[in-house]
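User: Structure please.
Assistant: Input sequence and predicted structure:
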Amino acid sequence: MLPHCGSGDDPLPPPLRKCGTSGVLLPAVSLGLWHNFGAKDDRVRARSILLRAWELGITHFDLANNYGPPQGSAEATFGRVLKGDLRGERDRMFLSTKAGYRMWEGPHGDGGSRKYLVASCDQSLQRMGLDYVDLFYSHRFDPDTPLEETMGALDFLVRSGRALYVGISSYNPEQTRQAITILRQLGTPCLIHQPSHNLLDRWMENGLTGVLRAEGMGCAVFSPLCQGILTGKYSAGIPRDSRAGSMHGWLRPKDLTKDRLEKVRQLEELARARGQSLAEFAISWTLRDSVVTTSIFGASRPDHVEEAVRAASRTSFSREELDRVDAITL
C-alpha cells in the first residue's frame, strides 16, 4: 500500500513505473535532496518537504555524499527524519546515494577509485543511519581511473551488502555501454542511469536514450526544471531566495541568458494551453517517453512537491504539442 494519507483535495499518488526490465518499481516523480536540505538550510522546512513527499506517495529519495552545504549534511538531515517521523518506514522506501565528486581533500577524495567509492558509501551509510542503500551510483565517469576498477567497486558494494543495486550518472552513450558490459561480466547488472534532462538540456536524446532502451536499463532523470529556470521564476529578475540568488547555489546569473528566458516565455504559453503551470509542464514532458522511469525534482516548499505529483498524471502529449516544443527548444 502506498503511504498516501492526505486530504481528498490532494493529487493522486504518482504512478509506479518499472525500472527497465528489473523488478524495481519507482514512483514517476522522486524527490532529490541536492538543494535545500543542508545544514545551512531551514531544518523545519526541509522536514516538512520530506514528510509532504512521503504523504503524497513519493517513496524514492535521491541523495549524494556531497549534497549540502556543507557536504554530507543532506544525508544527515534525511537520516534524522528517517529516525524520527519516518521510523519504521524503511522497507517501503527506495533510497539512493552517490559518490564521484570532491568530498574531502587529499588523495582519494573524489573520482572513481575503489578506495574512494567504498569509503564514501560507508560514510553515507553512517550519516543516514542505514545498514544498506537500495541503490548506489558512480556519480560521474572518471577518466583517471580504469572503468574496470570503478565498476568493480560497485560490484563489491553489492556483494558486501552495502547496496542492493548499482547505477551510473552522467556517463555518455559509449561509456554507458562499456559500464554495462563490465558489470554484466561481473554478475551485477547496471540497474539505472541518472542523466540530466529537461526542456533546455536534451543531450541524452543524442544516443543515450537508445542505449538504455536496448539494454533494458532504467532511467532517473535529474534537474527536470533546469534548476528552477523552468518554473518561470526568473522572468522578472532574480529573487533573493532563489538558487541564482544564493551564495551556495550552482545556478549563476550568467545562465539566465536572453535566449533561454525567451524560450521559457514560449514554453509557458504552451503550459497554459494545457492547463498546467510551467513547472508541471516541464516535469510531465520528461516523463513522456517510457524509457524514463522517474523524474527527480527538487523542492524548496511543500507545494512544489504537490506540483510535481500533479505532473506525474499528465504525461501524454499530442504530436502538435511535441512538435511545438521541438521548434522552441531544438
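The beta strands are 16-18, 25-27, 29-32, 60-62, 94-99, 133-138, 163-169, 190-194, 218-222, 294-297.
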